[in-house]
Amino acid sequence: MMKAKPTFFESDHFQQFWNSGNGKELLDWAELRPDINRFEKFAHLFHQVDEDGDDAVKDTYLKLPYHEASALVKKYSQTPVTDSDEAPESIRKMFLQMQEIPNWFDENLANKGARFCMRTGTNALIILRDFTLMGGYDFGYLNKPLIFTGALKKGAVKRLKDTLEFWVHVTRENALKVNSDAYQLIVRTRLMHSYARLTINKKAENWNAEKWGEPINHWDMIATYTGFSLVFMQGLKKLGIKISEEEERGVFHLWKYVGYLLGIPAENLPENKREATEQLYLWSSTQDKADGDSAQLAKALLDENLTNTIYPFQFQRKLLLRLHQSMNRFLLDQEVNDRLKIPQVSFPSFFPKIVIRANRISERIFDIKKPDGYQKLVDFGNKNQMKVLDDYIKHTPKDFHY
Asked: Which InterPro entries does the annotation name (predicted)?
């Protein structure tokens, strides 16, 4: 059996990130001095995948006409599955796992994480795009499934809409109940991951499992959702957002449950910034730095500003592109920006400083230390996030399916 190795532990890009870049900032925040010798504890996750999801896809999308498979999945996403249902055994097994609420899940704590995500408003969307997503492209191997499934050909607009739709729906208060809209979206995402993995393993003759792990493996998945928790909060701190210990715990708990619903073994999902930082540190030692594919993905994400039709005029789109480039340059390490070939901009900190100042003023105006002020900011942030999502849904082609 293939075994993951910390191949890039001594590489310049790994050492730079963790000794002087954003990685060092994470280590200081988590008060962690990681030990590479703990790599073996998690190494098996590099070749471990969601077998239940894969089996469900084999019995639906790979066996039935698309509309029949979709109807079957939709039926059991919307209504509880029982042992006596006539659905394929694989479908029953996956849905029964998802319907079983684990003893460790605390809905109140997850809701605190959701309320934090909402109250950060458009700041959250900036960080998700310009720090989490763009920064993730610097991990050269993590992005290989996107390349092998033709994500570049489909364009960044669709990918952004899908990511935004997923994030917004799962981060609303009380959103993760069985058969809810968010739950149904998680089901589709889980099966999409399995479909992509099975397709890659069947058709991609040059997939290098020894170097890249299994496509969309559990360790890559954990790293991805660490981007939605640990790295997400790191980015918000850079924009002047204050985070309480309760909010921090809530965000990690929320994403632990989302990860569980997506088929990741709960015992491997981080519960706090120390665990998350350690896993990210160890996992990143398996990742080469950005390559040509990474730079293409970064360019596609930037070009999305110019091709998206949300803003009708070209000067508006060019201004938006400039703002996102400024955020990239402000948030990401210089070496990462350079590897991803993100253009230099004049006065890159000008726009970020305006955002930071606006956040400080906002926290004073709403007085988030008071419950009514906090709630007003949650409602305001939620409204803004839903508006952006609505715009993306209206301006994204609808003729795609997995």
From this structure: Lcp-like, MPAB/Lcp_cat_dom
